[in-house]
């Protein structure tokens, strides 16, 4: 393992290419994205993050395990429609879901908040909000945006994109051949007379084969899941083939969203929106961060006694553990970003 972000990225991509087919032009785009700003760099280098945590703050990996998001950050939350058509908000990317440490999730979320441009509250306040909320919140379903208590989230949902424009944009991707997909994946898409297109999206998963089927006012994306990054950087996380479905069911996750034969299927629609904390007033930032911590608890608490045990362990850590680790990993991430950006210029 190396702290050199360029070498670390090359090593990880070689490891990934040994396990799944990768899309070279998407990796080139990812490299440009990583050089854009520190937050995007953090989002796209989970492998380097795990290496640096094991070096700088290994204690956050200890203790009882819960269903952990892993790659948790402030842009990993958004809206969706569940199987009953209820519009919800919560954690919307579970690609790195595994049994692991909730402290690691809290740390990554805190660092991402500190790195978000134009966030006008201090790292100390960010850490206090996240930790206090996480310690007390009750797990449950993802937020129903129609609930009275979700007013602060409803107010921040971007204006819905025109449907024709949204689906038209998806059709601009290069034509794709669905015959390369496993039969079970093709059957699960269920769109009559769909046109298939390649799609570039995300940051961390850029490079994974990804395509989208587009019909009339409906779209389904499929992408290769790939191996968990915790298999590249051993952190004691435990994979569980049943965990993904269990968490989605418990939080009333996006519908349809499932894994089939190594591919992930999900719906794309104008209803799927991200709520960002960038440039918000301090009070609004605090409200959203509080909701993010609660959403993390929804995942961590799918099996309540595991969350109870993990909270007991976190209480034994020094009072300033999250702030200390956040400052250390924020500074380190900025340094790695500067090094990467300089090499790309």
TrEMBL record:
List the SUPFAM superfamilies hit by this protein, alphabetically.
Protein kinase-like (PK-like)
Q: Pfam families from the xrefs?
A: DUF2252
| Protein name as catalogued | Uncharacterized protein DUF2252
- What organism does the record attribute this protein to? Kribbella rubisoli
């Amino acid at each position: 393992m190396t702290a050199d972000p360029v070498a670390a990225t090359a090593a990880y991509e070689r490891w990934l290419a040994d396990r799944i087919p990768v899309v070279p032009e998407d990796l080139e785009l990812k490299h440009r994205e990583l050089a854009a700003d520190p937050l995007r760099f953090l989002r796209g280098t989970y492998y380097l993050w795990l290496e640096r945590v094991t070096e700088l703050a290994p204690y956050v990996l200890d203790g009882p395990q819960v269903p952990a998001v892993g790659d948790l950050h402030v842009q990993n939350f958004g809206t969706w429609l569940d199987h009953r058509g209820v519009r919800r908000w919560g954690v919307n990317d579970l690609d790195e879901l595994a049994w692991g440490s909730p402290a690691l999730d809290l740390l990554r979320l805190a660092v991402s908040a500190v790195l978000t441009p134009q966030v006008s509250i201090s790292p100390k306040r960010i850490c206090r909000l996240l930790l206090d909320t996480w310690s007390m919140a009750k797990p449950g379903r993802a937020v129903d945006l129609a609930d009275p208590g979700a007013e602060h989230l409803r107010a921040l949902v971007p204006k819905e994109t025109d449907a024709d424009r949204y689906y038209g944009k998806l059709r601009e991707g290069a034509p794709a051949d669905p015959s390369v997909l496993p039969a079970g994946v093709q059957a699960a898409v269920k769109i009559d007379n769909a046109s298939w297109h390649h799609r570039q999206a995300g940051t961390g998963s850029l490079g994974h084969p990804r395509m989208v089927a587009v019909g009339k006012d409906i779209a389904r994306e499929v992408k290769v899941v790939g191996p968990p990054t915790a298999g590249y950087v051993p952190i004691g996380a435990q994979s569980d083939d049943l965990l993904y479905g269990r968490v989605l069911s418990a939080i009333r996750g996006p519908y349809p969203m499932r894994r089939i034969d190594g591919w992930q299927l999900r719906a794309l629609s104008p209803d799927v929106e991200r709520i960002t904390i960038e440039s918000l007033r301090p009070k609004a930032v605090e409200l959203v961060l509080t909701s993010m911590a609660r959403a993390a608890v929804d995942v961590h608490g799918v099996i309540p006694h595991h969350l109870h045990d993990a909270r007991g362990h976190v209480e034994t850590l020094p009072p300033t553990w999250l702030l200390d680790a956040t400052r250390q990993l924020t500074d380190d991430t900025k340094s790695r970003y500067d090094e990467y950006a300089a090499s790309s210029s």
